[in-house]
Amino acid sequence: MDELFGIPLPLLFGQLLLGLINGAFYAMLSLGLAVIFGLLNVINFTHGAQFMMGAFAAWMLLNWFGVNYWFALILVPIIIGATGIVLEKLMISRLYKLDHLYGLLLTFGIGLVIEGVFRNEFGSSGLPYRIPPELSGAWDLGFMFMPVYRGWVVVFAAAVCLATWLVIEKTRLGANLRAATENPALVQAFGINVPRMVTLTYGAGVALAALGGVLAAPIYSVNPQMGSNLIIVVFAVVVIGGMGSILGSVITGFGLGIIEGLTKVFYPEASATVIFVIMIIVLLARPAGLFGRTA
Amino acid sequence: MADGMIRAETDALLAVRGLEAWYGESHVLHGVDIDIKPGEVVTLLGRNGAGKTTTLRAIMGLVGKRAGSIRYNGAELISARSDIIARKGIGYCPEERGIFASLDVTENLMLPPVVMPGGLSLDEIYTLFPNLKERARSQGTKLSGGEQQMLAIARILRTGAKLLLLDEPSEGLAPVIVQQIGRMIREIKQRGFTVLLVEQNFRFAQTVADRHYVMEHGRVVDMVKNEELLTSLDRLHEYLGV
């Protein structure tokens, strides 16, 4: 049995794995977007650029300072998260009293500026980032070869999503965050410094994007457009999952990655559009998204 | 009498002077004066729109713009942010109760941080409110109205706040639950808490309070001691239109 519905199994599983990997990135990025949107009510259009900055930061750390992948995995989210904190403090925080549209325009503009600066410095052809030796090679699973690094990406991203979910749903800090998402004024009137929480939450969302960037560096070439290519799909994922829903964005991220992968097998022509078709159907049937609460 | 006035001035835990407040362009409070001594339970009575809720929100720093003076324990709070005000030891229970739907009962209870020592322990709170223990894992908003009100008050008893601002805890509750809330307010008074209570229902207010301020058009227009309440009924009826 090496065929299913007339499709060779290695091809099917290969695309499934690819779908899972894309799904891992969709999930991590939409998770950050969901966390930020929940508390800040800002649709962070800089997210793709911050993902790209994560990949570049990993590349710079390796090539300029000799800092390897494993340390980059820890350092990059901290560094890029800190740039997010500065951005929130200096600019985004001034827009909370205005219409959502201003936050969207500001973050979109900042994203374009960052992308432009990186294109100017590094060109658009892309820089290679080697898979760390500990994760190179492939496992023979019998029906297909599974590159170790790809397996690592899926497992690590799932672990990060799970950890984020646990923090938000099961800890004191997460309870504060959920409460502030519902009624920030009252949470502040209980003595919690909500503006600081908002700043740190933005930083954490950006750190998640940057962590995704580090994970992506050895798979995709490190280039200034890598974020904007991904982010459009990620926004569709967020809309399908339901704005601000944590679990929704994770499940939808992985789920849509797989659907996209399977579409490549069964009807390749639709693989670039299938997510958007699903988005339209979901918006027609459930405007709040699959996991969203109707306001 | 003059002696009593001076004492009220200097001993006041909360002294509000000429408090004005705005929501956007609309000027809601026009100079509110309130004094509360430690351990007192004081109500704000008045019709809808008289500015009672806004007075509590203004003390808490939850209105757009404020002017005047709010001294608590000697510290001026008129320009402080609401989280700083809470940390001085003021607990706030809003009119809509503010129970969080995305938090279970325990999480709702534990949400306000402890701001100073002297609050009730969790065990004491569960003794006072056994229902909350039984329903610890329920979603906060799945509780009955009365239980939600208990929860909203219980969570600020934990924090060590000495002054509690309660906005219409009796609103929309069955008479038997209102009696329960009344017993609870008398109980927390005995434990030394100071309470500023907004009420529409002065029959309920009468069962818990030491004094009553009457508000009209964004000002305090009268003050009635609880023991004088029955002899002042005509006056109150006129203010409250009941």
Overview of this protein structure:
The complex is a heterodimer of chains A (295) and B (242). The N and C termini of chain A lie far apart (50 Å). Chain A has 295 residues and is mainly α. Chain A is globular. Chain A contains 11 helices and 4 strands, in the order ββααααββααααααα. In chain A, 71% of the residues lie in helices and 3% in strands. Chain A has one domain. With 242 residues, chain B is an alpha/beta fold. Chain B has one domain (38-61, 89-240): Rossmann fold. Chain B contains 10 helices and 10 strands. Chain B has helices at 2-11, 52-59, 82-87, 105-110, 122-128, 130-134, 145-157, 175-190, 202-208, 233-240, and strands at residues 14-23, 26-36, 41-46, 65-72, 75-76, 90-93, 163-167, 194-198, 211-216, 219-225. In chain B, α8 packs parallel to α9 (202-208). The longest helix of chain B has 16 residues, at 175-190. At the A-B interface, α6 and α7 of A face α3 of B. Chain A: Keywords: Amino-acid transport, Cell membrane, Membrane, Transmembrane, Transmembrane helix, Transport. Chain A: This is Branched-chain amino acid ABC transporter permease. Chain A: It is found in: Cell membrane. Chain A: One of its GO terms (biological process) is amino acid transport. Chain A: The chain crosses the membrane at residues 12-35, 42-62, 68-87, 99-118, 149-168, 200-220, 232-259, 266-285.
Q: Can you summarize this structure?
A:
The complex is a heterodimer of chains A (295) and B (242). Chain A has one domain (17-224).
Task: Summarize the SSE layout with pairings.
The complex is a heterodimer of chains A (295) and B (242).
Chain A: E1 3-4, E2 7-8, H1 9-40, H2 47-65, H3 69-90, H4 100-122, E3 138-140, E4 145-147, H5 148-170, H6 172-182, H7 184-189, H8 194-216, H9 226-241, H10 246-266, H11 274-285
Antiparallel strand pairs in A: 1-2, 3-4
Chain B: H1 2-11, E1 14-23, E2 26-36, E3 41-46, H2 52-59, E4 65-72, E5 75-76, H3 82-87, E6 90-93, H4 105-110, H5 122-128, H6 130-134, H7 145-157, E7 163-167, H8 175-190, E8 194-198, H9 202-208, E9 211-216, E10 219-225, H10 233-240
Helix pairs in contact in B: 8-9
